[in-house]
Design goal:
heterodimer, A: mainly alpha, 2 domains, 6 helices, 2 strands, 3% strand, B: 246 residues, alpha/beta, nine-stranded mixed β-sheet, globular
Chain lengths: 141, 246
């Protein structure tokens, strides 16, 4: 492993490519006036990013559930969307609930309290106010 | 905020530190770092009923902090003083996987949530007059994440700057030997050192000294710190204290 002037660690590796793929990549490098290494790195970055996006989409597919979406929206009053989704998903997982299938019967008072416990660890909203807000979402559903 | 908080602190501070100062409170375990910070904040809040403070804890729960404060006679106005438990929040959002380690993305998320609660992103202070923040402690906060140390310092510096811009006076508690230089010393506006002096002829004595405070006229001498019936009090200069560099 080496360290460049920018401080980014780099690792050397050897890969085998199909002849035709190698030729296409090399031709693109020449056309763009960059090295083959840059073409491969960029392609790998793009692939990894796509995979991460796919994983995120799979993890958040419960957002198709209207009630889940409404609860997340309400939680966003107190937390960022990212944190609200993480908290909601974790709470469901810990209770063995599939977040895609939640209904107003599954979201019990106990569930709401547990969500608000998580929220009030960081947000300055009071637990009472938080429970009231989420209860209203459930009632409207 | 400082001069009229702890009884006798005006003997050390001749002028008030500027609003929005980032002040490190550093000392070894048991030197009253948290208690002094609570006492200064609580005193300020009682005099400013429309302002608020956020105390971010990592090592202890909110209940434990409130108990400790009560035990040394520090009463806080609950509707103005928010104690937030970041370690518990992190536990709530981490996936339940044995080998999972919270990386820089979690650090950024937690900083984002703290900033949001403090109203750092809004053009106005959304939480309503959030004037003070305390982080207890920087050591344990850093231990919550597995990430490059330089990147963490860079992001912390950015966070401190946003606190200054919003004129939120901040207390960053650091547990350690004040004599040991750490990079964060250069990132803050002030350093308050607290310690215990142990000489062979006398009982151990607690002291407080201000090592650095930008834009402030202050005394550099260590002063004795006592817990009285009225709370924490700064009494007289500690004479003959060894190993203290001003």
């Amino acid at each position: 492993m080496g360290v460049t002037l920018t401080g980014i660690k780099k690792r050397r590796t050897t890969i085998e490519l199909e002849e035709s793929l190698y030729k296409r990549a090399k031709a693109l490098a020449v056309e763009k006036d960059v090295t083959l290494k840059e073409i491969i790195s960029e392609a790998l970055e793009e692939k990894l990013m796509r995979e991460e996006e796919k994983k995120d989409a799979e993890n958040n597919d419960f957002m198709d559930n209207t009630l889940a979406l409404k609860i997340i929206k309400e939680m966003e009053r107190f937390l960022s969307r990212e944190a609200a989704i993480l908290l909601f998903r974790n709470k469901c997982e810990k209770r063995g609930i599939n977040p895609k299938k939640i209904t107003e019967h599954i979201i019990t008072k106990d569930c709401l309290e547990s969500l608000c416990n998580g929220i009030t660890y960081i947000s300055s909203v009071s637990k009472k106010e938080c429970i009231e807000a989420l209860k209203k979402v459930k009632e409207r559903a | 905020m400082f001069r009229d908080s702890l009884k006798g602190l005006d003997r050390i501070f001749r002028t008030e530190p500027p609003e929005g100062s980032v002040v490190m409170v550093v000392g070894k375990p048991g030197t009253l770092k948290s208690s002094i910070t609570h006492a200064i904040i609580s005193s300020y809040l009682w005099k400013h009923g429309d302002e608020k403070a956020m105390y971010i804890t990592i090592e202890e729960s909110e209940e434990s902090h409130r108990r400790n404060m009560a035990s040394i006679g520090i009463a806080v106005p609950n509707n103005q003083y928010f104690i937030k438990d970041i370690a518990s929040f992190e536990q709530e959002i981490l996936p339940e996987k044995e080998d999972f380690v919270p990386d820089e993305s979690y650090f950024r998320l937690i900083i984002k949530e703290i900033s949001r609660s403090l109203g750092l992103y809004s053009s106005t202070n959304v939480e309503g007059q959030m004037k003070i923040m305390a982080l207890d402690s920087l050591n344990s906060f850093k231990n919550l994440f597995v990430m490059d140390e330089r990147m963490m310092r860079y992001r912390m510096q950015d966070f401190f700057q946003r606190l200054r811009n919003k004129k939120i006076t901040s207390f960053i508690i650091v547990e350690g030997d004040p004599e040991e230089l750490i990079p964060e010393y250069f990132m803050v506006d002030g350093i308050i050192e607290v310690g215990i002096e142990r000489s062979s002829s006398q009982l151990p004595r607690r002291y407080l000294m201000v090592r650095k405070m930008r834009g402030t006229a202050h005394n550099m001498a260590p002063y004795m710190l006592e817990i009285t019936e009225d709370g924490i009090e700064i009494t007289e200069p500690l004479i003959g204290l060894k190993n203290i560099k001003g």
